[in-house]
Amino acid sequence: MSNAQLTMDSLRKLNTKLLVEIAELRKKFAKIESENAEIPKLRKKVAENEVEKMKLRQELKARTDELEKTISHYSIKIELIPEVIAKQLVSAVNIPVMDQCETSLKDKKIDAFLGEMHKKKVFQFFHHLDFKDNFFTLLQIGCWTLWML
Fold first, then answer.
1. How many angstroms separate the first and last alpha carbons of the chain?
2. Cα atoms in the 13 Å half-sphere on the side-chain side of 53
3. Quick one: pLDDT at residue 147?
4. Out of the domains of life, which is the source (predicted)?
5. What's the Cα-to-Cα distance from 81 to each of 21, 29, 117, rounded to whole Å?
C-alpha cells in the first residue's frame, strides 16, 4: 500500500470517529435545549407560588390580628368578672341585712367590717383562679353563691 492509501484510510477512520462524536454532541445539545426550554415555565411557576404565598401571609396576618383583638376584648371582660361578682354578692348580702333590722352603731360597724372582709375574700378567691380557663366555673360559683344567699 502506498503512503497515500494509508493516509486516506487514517483520514476515513478519523472522519468516522468525528461523525460519531458530532452525533453524540448533537444529542447532548438537544437535551440541554429541551431543559432550557423548561426554565421560563419554571420561573413563571415560582413567581405564581410567591404571589400565592404573599396572599396567604396577608390572610394569616389578618386572621391573627382579628384573633388578638377578640382575645384582648374577652380578657378585659374576664378581668372584670370578679369585681362585678364581688359587688353583686356584697350588695345582695349587705343591703337586705341593713334594711331589715334596726341595729346599733356598733352592730352596723361590725356588719360593714364583715361585708368588706367578705368582699375581699370573694375577690381574692376569684383573683387566684385562672379566669380564662375557668370562666364557666366562675359563673357557676357566682350564681351558686347568689342562690345560697
1. 131
2. 6
3. 43
4. Eukaryota
5. 87, 77, 18
